[in-house]
């Protein structure tokens, strides 16, 4: 399972989340991923969203750098670039998440490297794409949620647009990047040539909205429901309702079922074809009923009536949820100063198992000397590189 990509060599010039997460997906499956970092370390080593660290250790770094190796190379030093170039010319995959054109300036662009290593799969992960009017804009998850329509589609009608409460665009772009790399590697088996794979946050955000955009592209004009339906394009009910002591989410239920479950003949007075136009009234009627019982009471009642529903969990509930635990969703490793660090596991099962942590996220430059030795750079030559700061 963990050796599916054994023998595949990956050089990763990545930072933030999209690139490291894509690299980690490959590393989980056995690819030898070498992360190239500057002397100060990758950005994610010294940053977390809430500015919270575990004894000085970043959980943001921990979440997307397991099973990889780290080298330090100064890409402003020609000797550092030469080391990295030698590494890439022996690699199967290069992943980079710099701004478009950065590696070209260093002589490490796709055309330059493919001329010498035609089997190389070069994966460029960016904010908006390698060209176009937004090429040089900062690409970041919440900005792309706004630009792509995702934030505008979320929240109550009349309220401010609402970004999703997680970096869903970053992570989806990472998965698409890894998917593209695997497709290119498979194609290389037939053609003998690698190729250029490009994934970007904007395309990923649009892909997340494949259904609503299909409606919009074909003339359907939607609006958010003032009663809080969680989507502008679904019939009621489709959203979150308050109980007497919490919340439940109800989805895609017929008027007949609503009449039966709530014992309310009002639902039978509606034309089934008007469920979209009447969604606010339907949701308000449901909300009035929902206040009358506890979450547990409604859950038992809905289960008996085969309703589509789910509890609205916070993260405290999620991490102890029986199905989440049954799916073996979490892993942990020991850090010298921070102690036990818990993380999510690789999301896919293979033959009934999920790949785990073979090696903890590396310390900065932990494998530089090891990688140099594999390149045949040892003794005085290696020491000279360290002394000059070309590597670290």
TrEMBL record:
InterPro entries: CoA-transferase_III_domain (IPR050483), CoA-Trfase_fam_III (IPR003673), CoA-Trfase_III_dom_1_sf (IPR023606). Keywords: Transferase. The keyword Transferase applies. GO terms for molecular function: transferase activity. This is CoA transferase.
